[in-house]
């Protein structure tokens, strides 16, 4: 117990003695991990948003109506035919009234909505595919159907977003990795400076028979505290940033800026653990050359 | 207590620091290592502490072959060997008591035991009432007493001293030698490297003379000056 107390005391005394070096290490870890956590969060936002788009409607078929000689029965027949296709997971029929409701929802304060005749708006079939990337085949089959007025597929935009998401995934991962390594290197450097500042003390410890582990532990504790503090600040920073960005959410409804709490908690714990491991690992790296018996 | 058998130390650059040294130091003996700078005295002391490894040969300390000792056991060797250096090697931001206690803290001794032993050794080295002073508030002689106290607080069977009076005036040196003599009389084996003629002559203990890394003289009650007449 006395030994543990002594080791902890040595760590804290050392940190008190070199506040600038310690703050430097904490800030370095904070910046590295904040950027890494930030990159992961952005990547997560892109993922969840593209997921939402991918989970939505893949193909919309606007239908001709009675004015074009198409009866409701033909529309229903077309829907049944589409339902029978292998690629189609489900369909939804939106009639003229439904389209009008949707229009009102999209333009809530527009005076146009009050003057518009619901009959002008075409009915449509919304199609969800089992494989969203194969939307072209469905579009191809629909184009020549007599009841079809127009076919719209947001697939291309989805493909672009998915492509962007993949690039961001790798970019985020790469950035997180580089920042993580930077954190380890910076802690290692700090511990090296701390050992250099205490080299006389370390040589005396060795002289009086302190084991290598006894000399190492205060430095490892110091690295761990620096790592956890830096990671804690990074987690706090990302939390603040997500709150600030979350407020923008209301204004821009196209993109959902809310990070799920599950994602945040899971990664916060992982980042804190990484901070601790990086701190201990960095210290061990810094200690490697200094403590040969 | 200490035995060297054909010990040779060659540094990386090819410099021969010690050459075929064989030596036996009995328990409770007081031995002076004398010789000019670069004769190998300090290297010998460093090898006894396993701060330097031998190139060839074997060294036994307290019955253990330290040349074959795995490095993780070296700290245990150092706990049985107290060391005193010319530059005292005290921690400037720790008090006298804290400096001495440091040697026991690294061994994980209970606080009460540390406190008792530190007080005892402070009295023994003649620094009563100065336990709360910092090294810079002490004279050179007093700092060396703290260093001796730290080396002796663990009651090691062996004390290695490398020029302990090198920074001190003659009167202060006498005081330090009296202290070392007292410690020796408790049964502690002392090996002391020195340049101090007066001390060696006054003490009349065993003298081992080194020259260019070789033992050139080994006398039971030697004097410093006899070095040249033996050659």
What do these coordinates show?
The complex is a heterodimer of chains A (293) and B (231). Chain A is an alpha+beta fold and 293 residues long. Chain A has two domains: 2-53 and 159-288, no CATH class; 58-153, Alpha-Beta Plaits (2-Layer Sandwich). Helices cover 70% and strands 8% of the residues of chain A. The longest helix of chain A is centred in the middle third of the chain and has 43 residues, at 155-197. In chain B, the strands form two sheets. In chain B, strands 6-7-8-3-9-10 form a six-stranded mixed β-sheet, with helices on both faces. In chain B, a hairpin with a 5-residue loop joins strand 1 and strand 2 (16-25). The two termini of chain B are 28 Å apart. The model of chain B has no long low-confidence stretch (mean pLDDT 91). At the A-B interface, helix 1 and helix 8 of A face helix 2 and helix 3 of B.
Topology record:
The complex is a heterodimer of chains A (293) and B (231).
Chain A: H1 2-17, H2 19-55, E1 59-63, H3 72-83, E2 88-94, H4 96-106, H5 112-115, E3 124-129, H6 135-143, E4 148-152, H7 155-197, H8 199-207, H9 212-248, H10 261-288
Antiparallel strand pairs in A: 1-3, 1-4, 2-3
Chain B: E1 2-10, E2 16-25, E3 30-34, H1 41-48, E4 56-61, E5 64-65, H2 74-79, E6 81-85, H3 96-105, H4 111-124, H5 140-152, E7 158-162, H6 170-185, E8 189-194, H7 197-203, E9 206-211, E10 214-219, H8 226-230
Parallel strand pairs in B: 3-8, 3-9, 6-7, 7-8
Antiparallel strand pairs in B: 1-2, 1-4, 4-5, 9-10
Helix pairs in contact in B: 3-4, 3-5, 4-5, 5-6
Fraction in beta strands of chain A = 5-15%
Structural class of chain B: alpha/beta
Q: Give start-end ranges of low-pLDDT stretches of chain A.
A: none
Order of helices and strands of chain A: HHEHEHHEHEHHHH
Q: End-to-end distance of chain B, in Å? A: 28 Å
Mean pLDDT of chain B: 91
């Amino acid at each position: 117990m006395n030994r543990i107390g002594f080791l902890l005391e040595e760590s804290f005394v050392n940190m008190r003695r070199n506040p600038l070096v310690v703050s430097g290490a904490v800030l370095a870890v904070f910046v590295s991990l904040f950027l890494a956590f930030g990159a992961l969060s952005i990547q997560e936002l892109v993922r969840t948003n593209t997921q939402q788009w991918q989970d939505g409607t893949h193909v919309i078929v606007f239908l001709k109506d009675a004015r074009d000689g198409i009866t409701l029965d033909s529309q229903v027949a077309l829907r049944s035919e589409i339902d029978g296709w292998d690629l189609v997971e489900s369909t939804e029929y939106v009639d003229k009234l439904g389209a009008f409701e949707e229009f009102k929802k999209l333009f809530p304060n527009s005076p146009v909505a009050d003057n518009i005749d619901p009959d002008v708006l075409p009915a449509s079939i919304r199609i969800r595919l089992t494989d969203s990337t194969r939307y072209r085949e469905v579009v191809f089959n629909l184009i020549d159907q007599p009841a079809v007025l127009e076919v719209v597929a947001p697939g291309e935009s989805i493909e672009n977003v998915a492509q962007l998401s993949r690039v961001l995934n790798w970019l985020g991962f790469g950035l997180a990795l580089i920042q993580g390594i930077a954190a380890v290197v910076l802690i290692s450097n700090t511990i090296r400076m701390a050992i250099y500042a205490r080299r006389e003390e370390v040589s005396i410890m060795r002289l009086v028979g302190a084991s290598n582990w006894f000399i190492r532990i205060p430095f490892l504790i110091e690295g761990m505290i620096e790592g956890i503090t830096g990671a804690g600040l990074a987690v706090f920073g990302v939390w603040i940033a997500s709150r600030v960005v979350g407020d923008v959410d209301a204004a821009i409804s196209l993109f959902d800026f809310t990070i799920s709490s599950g994602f945040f908690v899971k990664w916060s714990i992982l980042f804190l653990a990484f901070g601790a491991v990086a701190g201990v690992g960095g210290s061990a790296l810094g200690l490697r050359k200094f403590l040969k018996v | 207590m200490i035995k060297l058998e054909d010990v040779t130390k060659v540094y990386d650059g090819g410099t021969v620091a010690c050459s075929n040294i064989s030596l036996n130091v009995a328990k409770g003996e007081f031995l002076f290592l004398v010789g000019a700078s670069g004769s190998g005295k300090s290297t010998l002391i460093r090898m006894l502490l396993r701060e330097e490894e031998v190139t060839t040969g074997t060294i036994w300390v307290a019955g253990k072959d330290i040349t074959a000792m795995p490095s993780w056991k070296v700290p245990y060797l150092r706990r049985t060997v107290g060391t005193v250096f010319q530059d005292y090697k005290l921690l400037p931001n720790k008090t006298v008591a804290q400096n001495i206690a440091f040697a026991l803290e690294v061994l994980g001794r209970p606080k009460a035991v540390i406190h008792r032993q530190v007080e005892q050794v402070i009295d023994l080295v003649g620094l009563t009432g100065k336990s709360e002073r910092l090294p810079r508030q002490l004279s050179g002689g007093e700092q060396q007493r703290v260093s001796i106290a730290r080396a002796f607080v663990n009651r090691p069977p062996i004390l290695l001293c490398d020029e302990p009076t090198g920074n001190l005036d003659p009167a202060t040196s006498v005081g330090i030698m009296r202290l070392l003599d007292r410690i020796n009389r408790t049964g502690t084996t002392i090996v002391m490297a020195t340049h101090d003629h007066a001390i060696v002559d006054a003490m009349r203990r065993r003298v081992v003379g080194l020259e260019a890394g070789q033992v050139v003289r080994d006398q039971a009650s030697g004097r410093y000056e006899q070095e040249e007449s033996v050659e």
